[in-house]
Amino acid sequence: MLPPDRARRPADVPDCAGPDVTAGLDSDADGTPDSVFADDGEDLLLHTDLDDDGLGDQILRIGPDGGTSVEVEACAEPPTLVALLSRWWRGWS
Ligand SMILES: [Ca+2]
Ligand SMILES: [Ca+2]
Prior knowledge:
Layout: E1 35-40, E2 43-48, E3 58-62, E4 68-72, H1 81-92
Antiparallel strand pairs: 1-2, 2-3, 3-4
The structure holds calcium ion (CA) (2 copies).
C-alpha cells in the first residue's frame, strides 16, 4: 500500500515494470487503481504502482506462514531506451 502523504516520483521506482494495475485496487483511496493481487505458488503477491504509470513497481510477498517481504519488480529483459523514455513521459504527463 502507498504511504498516504508520499509524493509519487518516477525516479524513485525501478526501471522494470510489473503487471498492469489499472483494473486493480485503489489502496490509497485517491481514485486511481494502484495495486493488484497475484500468486506465486503458495505466496500471495500484491503488486503496487508507485509512480502512477499504471504498472507495478513493488511487490509485497505474503507467505503461507504470514511472513512478508518487499521486493522490486524483476526484469525479464533489460528495458529498452524507448520503454524507459515512455515510462518517464507517462509519469510526468
Ligand atoms: Ca490509488
Ligand atoms: Ca509504476
